[in-house]
Amino acid sequence: MIAARLPRPRALLLDFGGVVVQSERRDTWVTELATEIVAMLGAAGCTELTIDDVVRDVRAAAAADSAWKNAMSRLSAPAELTWRMYWSEFVAADWPEQARALVTSQAWLLCRRQGELRSTRFARNGIEDLLRGARERAIPVAIVSNAMSGIVHRDWLAQAGLDKDLALQLYSDELGIRKPNPELIRLACRALAVAPSDAWYVGDNFDRDVVCGIRAGVGATVLMTARSTHDLPFVVAQTPDAVVDDPADLLRLLTRTDERHP
What we know:
The protein is built from 11 helices and 9 strands. It is an alpha/beta fold.
């Protein structure tokens, strides 16, 4: 744990991936998704595309989406890529008209399915204790996260029984804006009736989370190290107020503020 003397928060805002959960990519997700898409197209009488065709374009879309997200981290107030745009342009731009129309019409469902198939998610060490500790201190906790499909995150939290300890969940795909747009954090603070300066924001990326917290004027920006934390797409000038290893470490940091602010 590396930290300056931090103000005690009146709200705790957490990223989802890398903070609440650690994800492991499933090697078979592209083939599984492509198989389902070809079956959907075939049911509508659209048979021009093979599984190999769809696998190729789903892989290309995922790579393009990753590059797009890195570019958006340079903007002052980026908007989120819509579900329809992802499927109509990133995946199906050169598909036959019927196939393109079909996946565009089912874009929300396909984004959800991609999110379900793409990764297996595990709770990070100490997340239950952290949420319990915040509850005992009467500190509301909100999820503020970029997402292709926020409903996948909502479903995981509900299945894990963690949603009951959350006051709020905000996801970029549902709101149309993405970090490092500071409005995402500011909206959460308005919903919780706290000033950004009274909140901590905790994320695992420099270019999206640390930059977003500083832009929003939060009381403390906390970086939680995860697998991809130091894989920066470019040099980031902003630095966090604290660095922690996992939710258990974050709870220890929160406990330290009790000693200074009884």
